């Protein structure tokens, strides 16, 4: 509770300009941080739009998806009608067309399972898992920096007070110095891990870009025409 109080007090002082705010991230990392929001938004909306292209039920295998497709229902309707018309010309045509439509429905279900596995699910992972985990680390770093700034401010204040009041201050200053060093070490550890995760994420931009190359080469027009 005391640490939380000191943290909120330090944040309030920084907000009104009574205390300096320490920025521990380099300009490169700050730029990456801004890009993460853009990348997450792009992946989120791409995932949403791709999901809207599906005719089958998300998360099912090809066989189950095939059974639920509107195209499958059309094929079944044609085949049922062909049995009623028996050996008539129209009956034979309906049987041939029904078989063809059913095969197209099967291919569509397999196609959607591929898109879901190779593109949609990875995009979801980027938008809802990878980037949020990095952003969670960033928030943790911000809290640790606040703790560091807070104890450093109290340490500076104790130093100023030591000029007029020596009683008990040396031990207090030493205690605050230990707290300050410990807080600084936590900041450095968290910052190093965050920086590593940020750079690692950006290093995989080419890999993520392949998802969209795959999307652009998919036969959506042909599949929609089904």
- The radius of gyration computed from the alpha-carbon positions, rounded to a whole number of angstroms, is 31 Å
Instruction: Supply the number of structural domains.
Output: 1
First-residue to last-residue Cα separation: 63 Å
Shape: rod-shaped
Beta-strand content? under 5%
Helix content: over 70%
Residue runs with pLDDT of under 50 for 5 or more positions: 221-226
Summing up helix and strand content along with how strands pair, one would put the structural category as: mainly alpha
The H-and-E topology, N to C, reads as HHHHHHHH
State mean pLDDT (0 to 100 scale).
84
Number of strands: 0
Protein name: BAR domain-containing protein
Subcellular location: Cytoplasm
Organism: Bos mutus grunniens
GO molecular function, one term: GTPase activator activity
Task: Report a brief summary of the structure.
This protein is an all-alpha fold.
Task: Write up what this structure looks like.
The protein is mainly α and 226 residues long. It has one domain. It is built from eight helices and no strands. Helix 1 packs across helix 5, helix 2 packs antiparallel against helix 5 and helix 4 runs antiparallel to helix 5. The C terminus is likely disordered. It is found in: Cytoplasm. Its main location: cytoplasm. Keywords: Cytoplasm, GTPase activation. One of its GO terms (molecular function) is GTPase activator activity.
């Amino acid at each position: 509770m005391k640490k939380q109080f000191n943290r909120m007090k330090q944040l309030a002082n920084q907000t009104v300009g009574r205390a300096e705010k320490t920025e521990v991230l380099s300009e490169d990392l700050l730029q990456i941080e801004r890009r993460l929001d853009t990348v997450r938004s792009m992946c989120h909306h791409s995932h949403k739009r791709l999901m809207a292209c599906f005719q089958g039920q998300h998360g099912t295998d090809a066989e189950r998806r095939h059974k639920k497709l509107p195209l499958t229902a059309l094929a079944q309707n044609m085949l049922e009608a062909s049995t009623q018309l028996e050996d008539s010309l129209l009956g034979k045509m309906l049987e041939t067309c029904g078989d063809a439509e059913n095969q197209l429905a099967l291919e569509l279900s397999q196609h959607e399972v591929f898109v879901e596995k190779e593109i949609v699910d990875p995009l979801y992972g980027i938008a809802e898992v990878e980037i949020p985990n990095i952003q969670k680390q960033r928030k943790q770093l911000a809290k640790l920096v606040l703790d560091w700034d807070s104890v450093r401010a109290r340490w500076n204040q104790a130093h100023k007070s030591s000029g007029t009041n020596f009683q008990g201050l040396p031990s207090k200053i030493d205690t605050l110095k230990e707290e300050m060093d410990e807080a600084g070490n936590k900041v450095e550890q968290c910052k190093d891990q965050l920086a590593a995760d940020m750079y690692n994420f950006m290093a995989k931009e080419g890999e993520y870009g392949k998802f969209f190359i795959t999307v652009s080469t998919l036969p959506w027009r042909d599949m929609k025409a089904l």
